[in-house]
Amino acid sequence: MNRSIRAFAVPLAGLLVIAACGDDDAATGDDGSSNEDVTITLVTHDSFNVSESVFEAFTADTGVNVEVRPAGDAGAVVNQAILTKDDPQGDVLFGIDNTFLSRALDEDLFLAHESPALDRVDDEVELDDEHRVTPIDTGDVCLNYDKAGLAAAGLEPPSTLDELLDPTYAGTLVIENPATSSPGLAFLLATVAEYGEDGWQGYWESLAANDIEVAAGWEEAYYGSFSGSGGSTGDRPVVVSYASSPPAEVIFAEEPLADAPTGVVADSCYRQIEFAGILSGTEHETEAQQLIDFMLSDTFQSDIPLNMFVYPVTDVDLPDEFVQYGVEADDPYLVDADTVARNRDEWIEEWTDIVLR
Amino acid sequence: MDRGVDRHRAPLTRRRVVTAGIFAIPTAFLAVFFLVPATTLVLTGLRDGGSWDLGEVGRVLGSSSTRRVAWFTLWQAAVSTVLTVVVALPAAWIIGRVQMRGRALFAAVLVVPFVLPTVVVGTAFLAVLDRGGPLAGLRQSAAAVILAHVFFNYAVIARTVGAAWAAVDPSTEEAARTLGASRWTAFLTVVLPQLRSALAGAASIVFLFTFTSFGVVKILGGPRIATIEVEIHRVTTELLDLRVAAVLSLLQLAAVIAALALYRRAGVRHGSGRLRSGQSTLHRPVGVERIVVAMTVLSAGALLGAPIASLVWRSFDNASGPGLAYYRALDSVGRGSIAFVPPTEAIRNSLGFGFAAATTALVVGGLAAIGLHRLGGRARGLADSSLMLPLGTSAVTVGLGFLIALDDPPLDLRTSPILIPAAQAIIAVPFVVRTMLPAIDSVPSRLRDAASTLGASPWRVWTNVDLRLLRRPALVAYGFAFAISLGEFGATVFIARADAPTVPVAIFRALGQPGALNIGQAMALSTILLTMTTVVMLVVDRVGDARVGGF
Fold first, then answer.
1. Cα–Cα nearest to B92, from B351, B266, B292
2. Distance in Å, alpha carbon of A50 to nearest chain B alpha carbon
3. What is the ipTM of this complex?
């Protein structure tokens, strides 16, 4: 019988390990609470990232600690915030973008705060007159192309959305499903902005006839079907990705690259703007305001590109790779947030009928 | 049969009290971590806007797109289940019966697909279904989904049925053969009936898994195919239409309950296998058996091995030849940022959650199985099915339910680190029950009687007889629970996590940005995850296989 007990020793050993880990956590918690400082919670998406030194600088300046709590992708963060409106999971929410903005504003999730730092921000990205949300960064969703792949096929990179309809580009494009993917939706909105609310359907009828592939999400499209990334396995040389993807290819190359393997079609970009807001229900409104102001400071803004691969909203210097290989579209597509909110579901439905059935 | 003996040993009422006591923990656990959250979300959805709107129920159920999705969900799950059983049964025989070099490794590696993140395996599959290749026609098709389902669930059949097979007394089969039955007849008439309970249990789990399939369908099925689970996820996360999501959740639940009722009707209740402890049931393959072994190992190698091997290879495939650049990058790229996860920490977190989830699942599921064994008639069937329901319920429903149901003291668990292993254990409990119950049912009552006659107390009988015989099934269940936890990502995505990133979380973070080093790190982490899984399985199996002296 003793030996049969051994079978249960593995689970028991596990319990001990857990118990030991639990003690560690408890100890850290004690250290935190012995400190009189306030801790505020930043609810955000899984892509949020920042240098440790940046939040340390904020804590040194204000005495306020920041706890980051990621909660799924951008859409999930907004949904969770709406569902937990009466008992929010944090003090500040970061990562709501212009496609979900109306939904959040309709639900009264945020307290207004007009940050003094807003005077350094372009008016075009301030979408809420009441300042319930503050723009923090912009990320452009653009067509990317595989330089070598297109050259091998004897093709020039497309320069406009229209050119994709040319039969020479048949079988080259992979996009994401707008029903399940945020860049996929951004690309659909780009075509709405270009061809109008009554014209985009015709464009998609022609595009769908030109042998495009529809992937579920960005990972599947970029790594699974696109041919241009250092680690991809696909064979389609044009993909819907981000303006910052070529700089990322260079920064995350396995061996230093002389040039980016991919390029951006500058006239195909749709602008996504990411906002932060103070969750109503917070007990730390002042500290939350301090955090929002800090997110517009040079310290935070200049840390954005290399951690989140999006662009700052103030005019801080960009990293070399962004200057050299990235594109900042002069006149990106943008559809007004209310129009998006009103038509989103219907457009996705229509798109699905045109492209998938 | 056995239970009749137990029943007149103690007064009926006392027996009921003890049974209720045994069920207390599983009931409380399921109530807190499954029933309350799921019910809360469904009710919130149905009452969305402050009033009940049952017209919506009719509209959603009556729409042609719902019918199409429901029909696809049903038929692909049925085909996937049958195919998995057929393909994996020979592997179960190898695990249960065949003495060969590398058997332990074979049994351990089978679990690997089960833990790898769908997106990683999905891209590996996409590479296999390369446009230029022979399987190009399968891209974005139901066939690709079914193939992947077989890949993911192979181990469920092979290992659980294999464990049951090892417990079947070979002498019954030998007797049949001596009496002139062919190998095949002996299998069909003697062995298969003894495996029926384990087989039906494992198949029911595969059915529920594939019925509620999400990632595989999304990634490999392409945008034209959806299961009910995919639709629930879409209307919840994209549209935040909780009312439609609630109706679809109820539809899914109804289908799962119907399937479980069918399973009960099939009369699968009592294990009839004879559990043995002691002598090995393994033998060296002879004659035609050698061919079956070779074909099984080769086909498993092609189906499971090829995508895994390509993944491992990519983790070493550097620009200037094979190397460790991606592994080195794990410890350097992104250091100094808050999202940086030191690989050792991710491994420790994964193992910690694995131990916690598997131990919880074993305690909860083990108690539930003991309780079920003591129940009879309809009560047993109903209790049994209820325990399976978490597998048939949408992860997004339960995950969001956590957020709105578990936010008040004393159960403010939203940000508690307990929530992750608890959510994982909920998925693992049905495994434990399905593996343990047939085994408990088939503990020969004469052994218990003999022990009591010799004066052993009921507790002593249980530890000396039951516990000893149940060790192997318990460890198979423990291993699966551990594997579920190691690979789990779905349920916990919806929970704002305490900062304890696991290996799958690190894989997703690596996949978030373009660049060779990022996908390379994802491959390296996947290789680490599959190595961890293999080692854990080997350890668990070794403990389970350690021979105890016979009675």
1. B292
2. 5
3. 0.83
B325 contacts in chain A (CB < 8 Å): 254
Q: Which of B218, B348, B358 faces A216 most closely, judged by CB atoms?
A: B218
Give A191's Cβ-side CA count (13 Å radius). 27
Q: Give the H or E element holding residue B313.
A: helix B306-316
Which residues of chain A have a CB within 8 Å of the CB of B126?
220, 224-225, 233-234
Question: Structure pTM?
Answer: 0.85
Rounded CA-CA distance B194/B173 in Å is: 11
- Asked, as a colleague might, if the bond just before B410 is cis with ω within 30 of 0, I would say yes
- In order of A49, A251, B339, the CA distances from A307 in angstroms are 5, 11, 9
pLDDT digit string (tens) for B500-516?
788 888 888 888 888 88
**Count of CB pairs separated by less than 8 Å, A with B:** 214
Torsion of CA B511, B516, B520, B522, to 10 degrees: 0
Closest approach of A155 to chain B, Cα-based (Å): 20
- A78 vs A106: CA distance, rounded Å: 12
Convert the pLDDT of each residue in B35-75 to its tens digit: 998 898 888 888 876 677 677 788 888 888 899 999 999 99
Task: List, in order, residues 6 or more apart from B343 with CB less than 8 Å away.
Answer: B330, B331, B506, B525, B528
B508–A231 C-beta distance less than 8 A: no
B415 neighbourhood in chain A, CB within 8 Å: 69, 89
Of A72, A245, A254, the CB nearest to B325: A254
The burial of B202, by beta-carbon neighbours within 10 Å (0-12 exposed, 13-18 middle, 19 or more buried), is given as buried
- Element at A121 (helix H, strand E): none
Could you tell me whether strands A133-146 and A110-111 are parallel, antiparallel, or unpaired per DSSP bridges? unpaired
Distance CA B25, CA B365 (A): 10
Check CB contact under 8 Å for B543 and A83: no
Look at A71 and B497 and tell me if their CB atoms are within 8 Å: yes
